[in-house]
């Protein structure tokens, strides 16, 4: 069952279509579509048999030899029929028929307070002169755990690939993330699906397990995730990473654990996770071995001990109460804290949770920064922001608000070829990214996908560099809230940024500059 | 935050040991880092004996080999992430015993607190006395034996392995059990969701006999009852009208 019905119009242009002119000569659309939108009858004619099943992946349009297919969104029902849009009506029909709630992939869709309502302030005459992006240097590096462990993590850019598990992603996608991180000097994260052995040498830039063929420089860092499900976790797993991330929650389903439905638990994934083939891998919503904040401190302590105090310990939070949650993580001993906002994606989650639970990513940053500043650890305990980050522009704004870097999850998938059809949970990803079907996985070539990821990271880093330097800075560590303006009152209220035109903070933020990222 | 400079010189003992020499560690005044570093660094012939460690959380975490004897009580997270060592405790242990163990054996002569043997993939945990609530939660393949009584929510969301309780169990036994077996010699207050009674087979009885003999459990296998899963996919699957919920099968 597709995640949302009837949201796309499927049009086949008969004047181009080979089958329309010569029945039986071409049925490419029938062959490539995983959702049976098209059908071939006994006379060799192709017809659209069920446009409602179309999820908008456009694989048919891409493979059509005559470019005869168009997949377009249906009319804007938000204007015409809201709140009873066709997708809403069909969702109710599905619940009435099946007694089950909808599941889907990706994150919240629609309009929420976002970075689009924030603008960058360039340097002119009344501020430090702009820097020359083409001829001067810009430091974008970030270090994690420089004061707490023997082997801190050095990131070349303030960017990383978000945690996406093997199981939610295919083997090829996990390999591509490691290759992309190795080429760009950033970090990748196993997610809570256990460790794919290949990642341990790919992340260092080696092609082979024996580490004799080094293909990619400068090498990246691999974070292993410690979660409520503990899939594939062992002492060896914990020691295999360059850092250990304790997952408390994620943006797409805060308050719930990870979901990997049985259809995607193949023998290979079952072996890595240590569970029976076909089992639903539903992580608990909480830790059964942590009952209070002191327990969490002890858990951090034992992870440091098992890794012999070599690597940093990170935390990942969902979007809940950022001020209190960040303070709790600092008290537990975190070297870095990632917060994943409302727009953060996932492979499978109840739609009502993905769409309706959590705090917009933009609104997480000011309270998190306030917490870190009050505890005297802002920029010492690193703050990373995730959830709908799309570009260097988003990254610059998050960093100027007080983050130390940003993570890309959905954007990384899109860089690999994803089209955001939100059908990840079906296991039928036509690009082989979130599928375990060998035929679909064969469409994703890890080295090529890794190259695309590296290209995306490099381009994004250049965007950050451009923005950093045109606003008068030589390092991302110099960015502050003065480099930004809110473009509407709502955003000014949420962020504490000065409002364009008014050129001051809103009254209730006056006198609270010590809570903001004032450089 | 922990710092690489936190370890004092006197915390790290330099011990010159002859082969076969008995190793004893007194935990008084030593932190976790100092104690566990010694446990990982030594490879004697025979067990290491350690005492005065009841206040340490995470003792013997992540060991891959060796034998440890705790003379007295132990704290929380004892033998967490154990991957091959044998750990014996002469007294009681705190919470989260053998957390996420993958191999090895952990034996407790006394009682274990809340959440014993959670998330374990393999190995064997034997508690001669009583065990607390949520014992063997998310067990993924270990054998967990309780010689006394166990609390509530034992074997919640177990995916594989064996849980054997010689005494009584509390509420919600085997709640959302997916796979694996639960054997109980006494009574339980209630069964959890997705469970059902299964008949004991000769293989089950033989298995219990072998384990009881190996670990010195005083119990008669033929009097045990077996609990198994009702469905391997109880969450994302539609129920048929004839499929009863085990919640109604209270004993």
How would you concisely characterize the structure shown here?
By secondary structure, chain A is of the alpha/beta class.
What does it look like?
The complex is a heterodimer of chains A (519) and B (251). The mean pLDDT of chain A is 93. Chain A has helices spanning 18-21, 28-32, 59-63, 77-80, 86-98, 171-184, 197-202, 235-240, 267-273, 293-306, 322-332, 351-356, 361-374, 392-401, 410-416, 438-441, 446-470, 489-495, and strands at residues 8-12, 38-40, 46-48, 69-73, 103-104, 118-120, 142-144, 153-155, 159-161, 187-189, 221-226, 243-247, 259-260, 281-282, 313-317, 336-340, 349-350, 382-386, 405-408, 484-486. Chain A has 519 residues and is an alpha/beta fold. In chain A, helix 6 (171-184) packs across helix 17 (446-470), helix 11 crosses helix 13 and helix 14 crosses helix 17. An 8-stranded parallel β-sheet of chain A has the order 9-19-18-16-15-12-11-10. A two-stranded antiparallel ribbon of chain A has the order 1-4. In chain A, strands 2-3 form a two-stranded antiparallel sheet. Chain B is 10% helix and 24% strand. In chain B, strands 1-2-3-4-5-6-7-8-9-11-10 form an 11-stranded mixed β-sheet, with no helix packed on it. Mean pLDDT of chain B is 87; it is low at 1-17 and 238-251. Chain B is built from 2 helices and 11 strands. Chain B has a domain at 111-248. Chain B has helices at residues 32-41, 202-215, and strands spanning 23-26, 48-53, 67-74, 83-89, 103-108, 124-127, 140-146, 160-165, 181-184, 195-198, 225-229. The interface between A and B is large, with 41 and 46 residues.
């Amino acid at each position: 069952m597709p995640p949302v019905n009837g949201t796309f119009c499927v049009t086949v242009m008969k004047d181009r279509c080979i089958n329309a002119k010569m029945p039986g000569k071409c049925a490419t659309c029938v062959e490539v579509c995983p959702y049976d939108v098209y059908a071939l009858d006994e006379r060799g004619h192709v017809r659209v048999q069920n446009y409602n099943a179309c999820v908008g992946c456009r694989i048919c349009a891409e493979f059509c030899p005559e470019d005869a297919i168009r997949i377009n969104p249906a009319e804007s029902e938000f204007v015409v029929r809201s709140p009873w849009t066709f997708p809403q009506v069909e969702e109710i029909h599905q619940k009435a028929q099946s007694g089950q709630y909808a599941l889907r992939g990706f994150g919240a869709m629609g309009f929420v307070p976002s970075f689009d309502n924030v603008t960058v302030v360039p340097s002119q005459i009344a501020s430090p002169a702009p820097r020359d992006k083409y001829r001067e240097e810009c430091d974008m590096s970030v270090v994690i755990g420089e004061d707490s462990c023997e082997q801190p993590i050095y990131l070349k850019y303030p960017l990383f690939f978000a945690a996406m598990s093997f199981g939610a992603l295919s083997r090829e996608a996990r390999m591509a993330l490691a290759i992309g991180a190795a080429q760009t000097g950033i970090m990748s994260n196993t997610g809570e699906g256990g460790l794919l052995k290949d990642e341990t040498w790919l992340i260092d830039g080696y092609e082979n397990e024996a580490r004799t063929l080094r293909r990619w420089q400068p090498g990246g860092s691999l974070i292993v995730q410690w979660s409520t499900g503990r899939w594939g976790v062992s002492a060896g797993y914990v020691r295999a990473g360059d850092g250990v991330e304790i997952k408390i929650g994620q943006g797409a389903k805060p308050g719930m654990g990870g979901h990997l439905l049985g259809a995607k638990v193949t023998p290979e994934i079952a072996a890595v996770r240590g569970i029976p083939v076909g089992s639903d891998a539903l992580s608990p919503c909480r830790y059964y071995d942590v009952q209070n904040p002191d327990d969490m401190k002890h858990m951090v302590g034992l992870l440091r001990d098992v890794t012999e105090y070599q690597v940093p310990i990170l935390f990942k939070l969902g979007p809940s109460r950022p001020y209190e949650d960040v303070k709790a993580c600092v008290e537990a001993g975190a070297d870095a804290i990632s917060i994943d906002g409302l727009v953060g994606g996932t492979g499978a989650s109840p739609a009502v949770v993905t769409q309706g639970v959590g705090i917009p990513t933009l609104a997480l940053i000011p309270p998190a920064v306030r917490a870190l500043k009050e505890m005297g650890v802002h920029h010492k305990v690193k703050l990373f922001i995730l959830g709908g980050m799309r570009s260097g522009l988003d990254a610059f704004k998050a960093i100027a608000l007080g983050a130390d870097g940003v993570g890309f999850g959905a954007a990384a998938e899109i860089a690999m070829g994803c089209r955001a059809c939100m059908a990840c949970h079906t296991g039928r990803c036509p690009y082989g990214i979130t599928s375990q079907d060998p035929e679909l996985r064969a469409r994703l070539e890890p080295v090529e996908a890794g190259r695309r990821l590296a290209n995306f990271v490099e381009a994004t880093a250049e965007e950050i560099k451009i923005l950093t330097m045109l606003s008068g800075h030589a390092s991302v560590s110099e960015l502050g809230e003065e480099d930004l303006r809110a473009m509407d009152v709502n955003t000014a209220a949420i962020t504490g940024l000065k409002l364009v035109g008014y050129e001051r903070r809103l009254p209730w933020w006056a006198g609270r500059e010590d809570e903001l990222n004032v450089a | 935050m922990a710092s690489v400079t936190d370890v004092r010189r006197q915390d790290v003992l330099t011990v010159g040991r002859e082969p076969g020499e008995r190793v004893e560690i007194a935990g008084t005044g030593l932190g976790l880092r100092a104690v566990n570093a010694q446990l990982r660094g030594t490879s004697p012939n025979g067990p290491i004996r350690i005492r005065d460690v009841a206040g340490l959380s995470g003792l013997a975490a992540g060991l891959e080999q060796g034998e440890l004897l705790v003379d007295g009580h132990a704290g929380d997270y004892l033998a967490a992430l154990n991957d091959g060592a044998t750990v014996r405790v002469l007294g009681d242990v705190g919470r989260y015993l053998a957390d996420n163990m993958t191999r090895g054996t952990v034996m407790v002569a006394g009682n274990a607190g809340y959440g014993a043997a959670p998330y374990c993939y393999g190995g064997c945990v034997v508690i001669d006395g009583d065990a607390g609530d949520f014992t063997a939660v998310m067990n993924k393949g270990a054998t967990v034996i309780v010689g006394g009584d166990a609390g509530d929510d034992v074997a919640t969301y177990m995916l594989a392995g064996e849980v054997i309780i010689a005494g009584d169990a509390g509420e919600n036994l085997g709640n959302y059990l997916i796979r694996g077996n639960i054997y109980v010699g006494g009574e339980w207050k209630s069964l959890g969701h997705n469970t059902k009674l299964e008949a004991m087979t000769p293989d089950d009885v033989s298995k219990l006999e072998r384990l009881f003999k190996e670990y010195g459990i005083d119990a008669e296998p033929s009097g045990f009852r077996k609990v198994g899963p009702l469905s391997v996919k109880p969450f994302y699957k539609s129920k048929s009208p004839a499929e009863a919920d085990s919640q109604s099968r209270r004993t």
